[in-house]
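@channel sequence for tomorrow's demo:
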Amino acid sequence: RVWPADAVLAVGDEPISAADLEEWVDTFALVEPSYSRPDHLRKVLTNRVLHTRVARQVDPEGYRRTRQQAERALADLRAGRGVSAEGPQLQEVSGCWNDKDQDIGMDRWGRAREWSTGEWHLLETLGGWTVVRVLDKPSEDEWLPNSNVQLEHVTWYYLEPSTMKREIEEALTRMPIRVLDEEWRDVLPVWYRHLLVDQPPSTETAP
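C-alpha cells (generated this afternoon):
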C-alpha cells in the first residue's frame, strides 16, 4: 500500500496526517487548558479524527453521497437559493459544545471561533456532512471553554446518529491501525495499541 507522504498514522484504509490532528489542537486546548500538548493531540485523535476516519469506511458510498449533497447545498446557500425541500432542513441552534439538547458539538463550536459571522461553510462531522454559518459568537478575547454560540446549519448523516457511536466503535475493533511516522506513535492511547500492526519496511509513501 502506498500512503500519502504526509501521513503519520492510518486506520484501515484511511491515512491521518499531522495537519489533520494539528488543526483541532487549539479547540481542545481551549476546553482543557490544564492538559499538555501531547494530551491534546490524543484527545483530537480519539475524539475527532480517528472515529471520523472509521465512519467513512463503515459506509463509503453514504460518505460520498452526503458530501455531494452538502456541497450542492453549500453552493445554493451561498447563492441565496436556500436548500431543497426534499432533504434535511436548516435548523438554528444556540449553546455550547457540550449542550446535550443542541446539535452543536465540538466541531461546529470550534470552527465557529475561527469563522466570520454570516458566511456559509462545509464541515465534515461524525457520520455526516454539515453546512453551517455563525449567527452570533463572543469576540476572540471573550471566548471561554463554556462560551455559547448561535449557529444555523443543515446536516446530512450517512450513519444513524442514535447508533453510530456504537457502530463506529465496533468497526474500529476490526480495523488495523498503523504508525507511519514513529514520532507520532505516542499519540495513540494505550487502549488502542492492541490494534496496531507493523508497517512493512518496504512500504513506500506517495510523493
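heads up for whoever presents: The beta strands are 7-11, 14-17, 91-95, 121-125, 128-136, 149-157, 177-179.
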